[in-house]
Write the structure tokens for this entry.
Amino acid sequence: MSATPKGTAVVTGASSGIGAIYADRLARRGYDLILVARNKARLDEVASRVASAAGRVVKTITADLNDKADLKRLETIFAADSSITMLVNNAGVGALEPLLRSDISAMEDMIDLNVKALTRLTYAAAPVFVARGGGAIINISSVVAVAPEVLNGVYGGSKAFVLAFTQSLHKELTDKNVRIQVVLPGATATNFWDAAGGAVENLPSAIVMQSDDLVDAALAGFDQGELVTIPSLPEAADWATYERAREKLIPNLSLSSVPLRYRAAAAA
Ligand SMILES: NC(=O)C1=CN([C@@H]2O[C@H](COP(=O)(O)OP(=O)(O)OC[C@H]3O[C@@H](n4cnc5c(N)ncnc54)[C@H](OP(=O)(O)O)[C@@H]3O)[C@@H](O)[C@H]2O)C=CC1
Ligand SMILES: N[C@@H](C=O)C(=O)O
């Protein structure tokens, strides 16, 4: 109640897990909320709990982000509602099965949600935030973005897209007063695992974070101005080293000359 009003945050996938915790924490920080998911009953339960705990205005939009018309309906809200100052692109699904056992239609649906919907909502929010000279976009990726061997490869690929897309977005929007963050959760105790056909209880407890710890750490990273936040990673310096190595490659990734190792092989 006492927090300074900060405008409205749109949180996708807010009916459970990480998204529901974001809703709670952002409301306590002074945001009004628009919560989005498919399950109306669960969404309404989160909305009334969060609204009464934080005393903020919480609206819900029941929408399937895999449905073109629902997605379009949401996209138009960014242009129409000038109170919106934050987008948390959190809705997402995963899979545990390897390629040879996965159903291609389920993989396509996963790409549509994790990649296409996130991209379309970002395209709806970013120009509006730039035009207003402020706003924030938080994209939920996963540690599998940099460890695609760990779970299903399409899931890892979809989350690598979210990381790369957000890094590029940051470069484009950095001087436009729009805050950008990508969060890479490790295994987190949510419905994600049941929905993906597994059980979080089967994982060693030492690698599983609770969703409230995850979101609190992610928001601490946001407050510290991080672009990439990996809540589980003990040493921030390890990510900095990884990034420096990646950035060192960039000037040499496109050159006219063929390196000696390939010229020698071609001549043999
Ligand atoms: N839990 C984990 O170990 C990890 C999770 N993540 C990521 O965190 C994010 C949140 O997942 P998490 O909280 O763990 O899992 P949950 O399953 O608890 O939450 C997923 C949310 O997405 C919503 N959602 C799913 N499909 C759609 C859809 N088609 N349209 C609209 N909303 C949809 C769900 O609501 P509803 O069913 O009501 O539509 C739910 O609110 C995801 O992007 C996930 O990839 C990343 C790394 C690890
Ligand atoms: N990040 C989690 C899933 O996306 C995991 O590490 O299992």
Observations:
- The pocket of NDP (ligand 1) is lined by residues 13-19, 37-39, 42, 64-66, 90-94, 113, 140, 142, 185, 187-188, 190-192, 195 (CB under 6 Å).
- The chain has one domain: 8-235.
